[in-house]
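Take a protein:
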Amino acid sequence: MAQDALEPRRRSVQCASPKGLHRVAYLEWGDPRNRDVLICLHGLTRSARDFDFLARALCDHYRIICPDLPGRGDSDRLADPMLYVVPQYAADMVTLIARLDVESVDWVGTSLGAVIGMGLAAQTGNPVRKLVLNDAGPVIARASLERIAAYVGLTPTFPTLEKAEEYVRAISAPFGAHSAAEWRFLTETWVRKADDGSYRPHYDPRIAEAFRATMPAGDLEFWQSYDAVRCPTLVLRGAQSDLLSRQTVAEMARRGPKAKVIEIADVGHAPTLLHADQIAMVRDFLLEGATS
């Protein structure tokens, strides 16, 4: 494969909300003429760059699209922070798929990105052909929401990249063991350098307003959406996940699309999909039955 195919192209699409227009940025990997499209969508405070390793491993088969959700990465911030909710994100993804001019897509979503993908795949006439839910499902444990609420929206300032990495290692400990280079990657793709030389998280801290306003009194459940999914579905679960329980994934294997479930040892919420074994799990599922 040509070297330039292993690097992404930066694109964007204009989307609409009740409070005006905003630009959603995305990275595009692989042959732009390829009709086999894979959308990879990140979690609550992360960005499109989370899928660099997966995209390089799969762009020989797919045209891969990795969006930044509004308020994250290179995408615009929303005028109204209460619009940082799944219905708006889903609408933006429908606009993005229309821009891609394809009839169907495969979908890999981590955490929030999985919830959005599941919501789309539950719609009548949806374009999702295969669905990978990375450590998220139709029940989200209240305890995990409380853990996330404790740090989302905070805007710490770090004098050096090393200090930023210490923080990322602390809040992302559930990701499991990673090499020094991988932790640096996870840090560099989460912060941006300010004019004064310091480093800050690169997302709109106002996403915390909608997150906290919509937190339920107990676990968050949406089995009705999951049961409406009809496409082949893979669920990856970190064995130590506090968000997705074994009980939930057992039920996911029994009902709705009867998902295939793989549990990943020594990982909590959520598998980063940086490691070769995790990438192979996704690749094997997506390419099963492929003719080319």
Remarks:
- The two ends are 15 Å apart (CA to CA).
